[in-house]
Specification:
This protein has helices spanning 58-66, 75-90; strands at residues 11-13, 23-33, 40-50, 54-56, 94-104, 107-116. Strands 2-3-5-6 form a four-stranded antiparallel sheet, covered by helices on one side. A two-stranded antiparallel sheet has the order 1-4. It has a single domain, classed as 2-Layer Sandwich (GTP Cyclohydrolase I, domain 2), CATH 3.30.1130. The longest helix has 16 residues, at 75-90. It has two helices and six strands; from the N terminus they run ββββααββ. It is globular and about 45 Å long. With 129 residues, it is α+β, with helices and mostly antiparallel strands. Catalyzes the NADPH-dependent reduction of 7-cyano-7-deazaguanine (preQ0) to 7-aminomethyl-7-deazaguanine (preQ1).
């Protein structure tokens, strides 16, 4: 395999920093290991963010996600760790990470973690008729 997991997140300049817009990234094949049993956990990750100066590059994000495949992590911990790493790399105005884990022992788990830049002003919602 020529491509290997990598924990370095790659970024690029926001092409339109003067405008608030939302980027949504769906990662349907996230995997990590249960820290109790070592069995694989599967999840769909949904990242939504309003960039400030930087955006996260998708191939680098994919390689970053691969670093969790052989690591044991509780759902709550891994969701917050991923959010913290991406926020540290790009300092977005807003970011939400929704991790929807597949059933384990008859229980589904969804963890939602958010980051909000305290100086960012949320734009007023426009309701169209």
């Amino acid at each position: 395999m020529t491509t290997k997991p990598n924990s370095d997140l790659i970024t690029f300049e926001n092409p339109k920093p003067e405008r608030d817009f939302t980027i949504r990234i769906d990662i349907p094949e996230f995997t990590c290991l249960c820290p109790m049993t070592g069995q694989p956990d599967f999840a769909k990750l949904i990242i939504e963010y309003v960039p400030a100066k930087l955006c996260v590059e998708l191939k680098g994000l994919k390689l970053y996600m691969w670093t969790f495949r052989e690591r044991g992590a509780f759902h709550e911990a891994v969701t917050n760790e991923i959010l913290d790493h991406i926020v540290a790399a790009i300092a977005p105005n807003f970011m939400r990470l929704r991790a929807e884990f597949n059933v384990r022992g008859g229980i589904y788990t969804t963890v939602i973690a958010e980051h909000r830049n305290p100086v960012w002003q949320v734009p007023e919602l426009v309701n169209l008729p």
